[in-house]
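FAQ: What does a ligand-bound record look like?

Like this one, built around zinc ion:
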Amino acid sequence: MSDCLFCKIITGEIPSKKIYEDEDVFAFYDIAPQAPIHFLVVPKTHIAHVMDLKENQVELMGKMLFCAQNIAKDLGLENSGARFVFNCKESAGQTVWHIHLHVLGGRDFEWPPG
Ligand code: AMP
Ligand code: ZN
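The answer part, i.e. the structure of the complex:
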C-alpha cells in the first residue's frame, strides 16, 4: 500500500533497524522502544489490523508468531519471557495501520496493562 509507513519500511524506502526478513515477514526494532528490547514483526502483505484477518492468512500469522519467538530467543528472552502484543484499532491505541506484532522484553510488565 503506497502510503503505509510499514510497507515503506519493508521495501526499504524508509530506513529501519532490520532484524530479520524472509519472503513473508519482516522484523525490525521499534523506533520508540518501551522496554530494553522492543521489536516489531510484520507481514510483507498489507493487512490493516487483526479485525481484517482472512482465513487464508492464518498460516501467515502463525509464521509471524514463530518468527517473533525465534528472534526473542536469539535476543536472550527465552528464560525471562516477553510480552507479545497486537494493538487493534483506536481503543487499543493502534497508530500504524499495518498489522504488527510487538515483542517487548528485558523488564517486568504490569497486568492488566493501563
Ligand atoms: P501501534 O501503536 O501498536 O500501532 O504501534 C506502532 C509502533 O510503530 C509504535 O511502537 C512506534 O514507536 C513504531 N514506529 C513508528 N514509526 C516507526 C519507524 N519509522 N520505525 C520503527 N518503528 C516505528
Ligand atoms: Zn502496509
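Follow-up question: can I read anything off the structure? Yes, for example: The chain has one domain: 5-105.
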